[in-house]
C-alpha cells in the first residue's frame, strides 16, 4: 500500500524557480503546471518541512550488497572531488527547496516518475554520481519487483526511464535545463528483477543547444552488457 504522506493546498499551481540551484546548476526558469495536469483525485500535498524531505539517493535497508558496494565506491571517489553524489528527492520542486523564502514555498503536487512510490525496494532504487571534469554520470540501479515486464525481467520502459534520468542528470549538470529530444536504446541482455546494474553515461559532444550522450548499462562486474543507448537533449531557451 502506498502511504500518502502529503497534504493538499488547493489553488496554487505555479512553481517559480528563482535562482541557480547549487547541485544542478544553471536552472533558471519559471514553470507553470496547467490545471489539467494535476491529479484528478485530491492528493494531500503540502510543502515539506526540511526534516520531512527524504533524499532517496542515500542508502536504505532495501539496497543489495552490490548497490552498497557501488555507492561506497563512488562515495570514496567523491572524497577526492572527482565525483559528486546527486541528491534525489521525489518531486522536481523539492530539489529547489532552498531557493525559496518560507513565504514563497511552492506547492508540490507532482512526483518524479522514478520516485513515485512511497515504499522502498519495490520500484526504482538508484543513486547517481556526476563527474564534472569528464562530463560523465554513473547510476547504481536496483530494479525492484514492480518494474516487471511480461517476460519477467525489468521492463524496457523502466530501463528507458533510468537511461533518460541518468543522461538527463548528466546533461542538466553540464549545461542546465534541457528536454529529451531523442532516445535510442538497444536491449542486449535482460535485467533480472532485484539485481543491481551500473549505468554509465557521458556527454559525447555539444553543438549549440544540442547535447549528444551515450549510455551503457552493465552488470556490476562489467561482464554483461544489458543495454546501450544514445540520447539527444536540447537546451531550453532562456525564455522557457
Ligand atoms: C529541466 C530541468 C529540471 C531540473 C530540476 C531539478 C531537479 C530534477 C530532478 C532530477 C533531475 C535528474 C534527472 C533529470 C531526468 C530526466 C530528464 C528528462 C527530461 C525529459 O524527459 S523531458 C520530457 C520528454 N521530452 C519532451 O517532451 C520534449 C518534447 N519536444 C520538445 O519540447 C521540442 O521538440 C524540443 C525542445 C526537443 C526542441 O524544440 P525547440 O523549439 O527548443 O528546438 P528546435 O526544434 O528548434 O530544435 C533545435 C535543434 O535540435 C534539433 N532537434 C530537435 N529535436 C530533434 C530530434 N528529435 N531529433 C534530432 N534533432 C532534433 C533541431 O533539428 C535543431 O537543430 P539545428 O539547430 O541544427 O537546426
UniProtKB/TrEMBL annotation:
Regions that span the bilayer: none
Q: Predominant location of this chain?
A: membrane
Q: Which CDD domains match?
A: PaaI_thioesterase
| Swiss-Prot/TrEMBL catalytic activity | hexadecanoyl-CoA + H2O = hexadecanoate + CoA + H(+); (9Z)-octadecenoyl-CoA + H2O = (9Z)-octadecenoate + CoA + H(+); decanoyl-CoA + H2O = decanoate + CoA + H(+); octanoyl-CoA + H2O = octanoate + CoA + H(+)
Keyword set, alphabetical order: Apoptosis, Cell membrane, Cell projection, Cytoplasm, Fatty acid metabolism, Hydrolase, Lipid metabolism, Membrane, Mitochondrion, Mitochondrion inner membrane, Transit peptide
Q: Which GO terms describe its biological process?
A: apoptotic process; fatty acid metabolic process
| Boundaries of every Thioesterase domain copy | 152-222
Q: What class of enzyme is it?
A: hydrolase
Q: What is its EC number?
A: 3.1.2.2
| A GO CC annotation given for this chain | mitochondrial inner membrane
Its family remark reads: Belongs to the THEM4/THEM5 thioesterase family.
Which named protein is this? Acyl-coenzyme A thioesterase THEM4
Question: What is the gene called?
Answer: LOC115461681
